[in-house]
Design brief:
Keywords: Membrane, Transmembrane, Transmembrane helix. The protein has 226 residues and is mainly alpha-helical. It has nine helices and no strands. α7 runs antiparallel to α8. The protein starts with a helix and ends with a helix.
Length: 226
C-alpha cells in the first residue's frame, strides 16, 4: 500500500508537471509546429488513439476473472480510442453524437437509425460506468485509495477537457465572444496533450488496483462485482 501511495503521488505530480509543459508549448511553440503536432492526425492524437486501445486490452486481460466488468471497461476504452480516430463520423454524414445530424442532415433514415443506436449504446455504457464509479469511489470511499484517487483525478479531467475543447466555439456561437488566438493555442495544447495522458493514467490505476490482490478483492474493487 505504501508503494502504491508513492506511485499515485508520483503519477499526479507528473501529470501536473506535464500539464504545465503543455501550457508552455501552447505559449512558446512556433505556430506551424504547434498546429502540426496537435492536429487531428498529429502525433499526440495518434498516440492517444493507441493508448486507449492498449487500455482496452489491459482491461480485458487484467480483469479476465470478472468478464462483465472487464468487458464494460474495455469497451469504454475502445470507444474512446475510436472516437479519437474520428470513427464516430467516418461512416456517416456527420458525428452521430450531434443532434444536427439527425435533424438537419440529408442522410438516409437507416443511417440515422443505426448511428442513433450506436450513440445510445455508447451513452448507456457511460451512464452505467458512471454509476459504478460513483458507487465505488464515493459511496464506498475508494477515492481515498491510491488507485481510486488516480481514477478520480482522471475522471474529473475528462469533462474539464471537453469544456476546454468546446469553449471557444460555444462562446462565439452563443455570445459572439472570440477568444484571443494565444489563449486558444494554450487551450488546444492542454486539451490534446492531457487527453493523450489520460489512458496511461487509467492504465496505471488499473495495475495498482489489480496487483497483489486475490480475484474476489480485485473484482469488487475495480468492477463492483461481488
Amino acid at each position: 500500500m505504501r508503494n502504491d501511495r508513492r506511485t499515485a503521488t508520483i503519477l499526479l505530480v507528473a501529470l501536473a508537471i506535464y500539464t504545465a509543459a503543455m501550457v508552455t508549448l501552447g505559449v512558446f511553440l512556433d505556430a506551424g509546429v504547434r498546429s502540426r503536432i496537435f492536429a487531428e492526425s498529429g502525433p499526440f492524437e495518434t498516440a492517444s488513439e493507441w493508448f486507449w486501445f492498449a487500455l482496452a486490452v489491459a482491461c480485458l486481460w487484467l480483469l479476465r476473472a470478472t468478464p462483465r466488468g472487464g468487458i464494460a471497461l474495455g469497451l469504454a476504452a475502445l470507444l474512446a480510442g475510436l472516437r479519437e480516430a474520428e470513427m464516430h463520423k467516418a461512416l456517416t454524414a456527420d458525428s452521430i453524437f450531434k443532434t444536427n445530424y439527425y435533424l438537419d442532415s440529408a442522410a438516409p433514415l437507416w443511417e440515422k437509425a443505426l448511428g442513433g443506436a450506436v450513440a445510445l449504446g455508447a451513452i448507456g455504457l457511460v451512464v452505467y460506468l458512471g454509476v459504478r464509479a460513483w458507487r465505488l469511489l464515493l459511496r464506498e470511499g475508494n477515492w481515498r485509495t491510491p488507485w481510486g484517487l488516480v481514477v478520480a483525478v482522471g475522471a474529473l479531467a475528462l469533462p474539464v477537457l471537453k469544456v476546454i475543447d468546446r469553449a471557444p466555439a460555444l462562446l462565439v456561437q452563443h455570445f459572439g465572444l472570440a477568444l484571443p488566438a494565444a489563449i486558444k493555442d494554450v487551450m488546444g495544447s492542454v486539451e490534446e496533450g492531457v487527453e493523450m495522458a489520460l489512458p496511461l493514467l487509467f492504465l496505471a490505476a488499473l495495475r495498482m488496483a489489480t496487483a497483489n490482490q486475490p480475484a474476489p478483492a480485485t473484482r469488487h474493487a475495480v468492477t463492483g462485482d461481488r
